Amino acid sequence: MLIYLKDSRIFIKVQKEMRIKEYLYSLNIFSSNLINRVIKNRDVAFADGKKIGKNRKIKKGEEIAVFIGDRELSDYKPIKGDLEIIYEDDLFLIINKQPNEILFYTSTNDRPCIASYVQQHFIENDIVAKIRFVNRLDRDTSGILIIAKSSFAHNFIFQNHIKTYYGISQKYYRTSCVINHSLLRRMPYTYICDKEGKRSLTRFRQLLNKRNYSLIAFKLLTGRTHQIRAHMSYEGFPLVGDKGYGGLKIDFVDRQLLHCGTVSFLHPISRKRVRVRAPFKRDFKRFIDEFMIKY
């Protein structure tokens, strides 16, 4: 099956005679919502541009094109900002987020945000796409932030990517395990471990245990707000600098030392696994150098 992307259209060489809707389902790359939308809007055509009706049978060897672009765009105010882009193609933009940056402005917070920086990047590079965040990071958490350039890209990668977070805590006694504590929201902005909360699972592995601190790799088996921060606090080893969860104060650290460091995903077009790494930020590297390596 030949698949390639051009001008917001996915071109596919048909492998089996079928009605168009059934064939799109058989590919296992499109969501039901997208299939229904493109059929309704007649956004499926032959390679020569001739539209394909919803009941039309397509034949083996024919080439079809599915439009996955956006007709409605985001309305964030474009602002020139510092985006550390670590991966980009026609479907995805991945940046290494700085700490102390918000994703988008709200009614109570209208300061410059990453969405505005991305909007400016799209305009400068003639990218016609709505901004869709695949994952979210707390304001003071740094690292990998994935933006999908279409609903197709968002739906495909949302359940099909693996992220690894890195954090520094006070010396932790375990080397690896799965933390299983349900989380319940405690107003206004923190979470506590409580059996009445939502099931929350965090897998971790200790990478470095020096002096009084531990460098830990985390993988989220569930995706709850503040999950890593709340779990480590409940375990009695909060992340360094995490004011909301009892973390140790360090002069040059003004946020929790938590960083989304790697992501891997199967690319829907190339069908190859993509691996992206986001280098640690300056405060994170400095802490490791001064408190865990130097004596």
UniProtKB/TrEMBL annotation:
It comes from the Bacteria. CDD domains: PseudoU_synth_RluA_like. PROSITE patterns: PSI_RLU, S4. GO terms for biological process: enzyme-directed rRNA pseudouridine synthesis. Coiled coil: none annotated. Keywords: Isomerase, RNA-binding. Residues 124-233 form the Pseudouridine synthase RsuA/RluA-like domain. Pfam families: PseudoU_synth_2 (PF00849). One of its GO terms (molecular function) is RNA binding. The keyword Nucleotidyltransferase does not apply. SUPFAM superfamilies: Pseudouridine synthase (SSF55120). PANTHER family: MITOCHONDRIAL RNA PSEUDOURIDINE SYNTHASE, RIBOSOMAL LARGE SUBUNIT PSEUDOURIDINE SYNTHASE D. Belongs to the pseudouridine synthase RluA family. This is Pseudouridine synthase RsuA/RluA-like domain-containing protein.
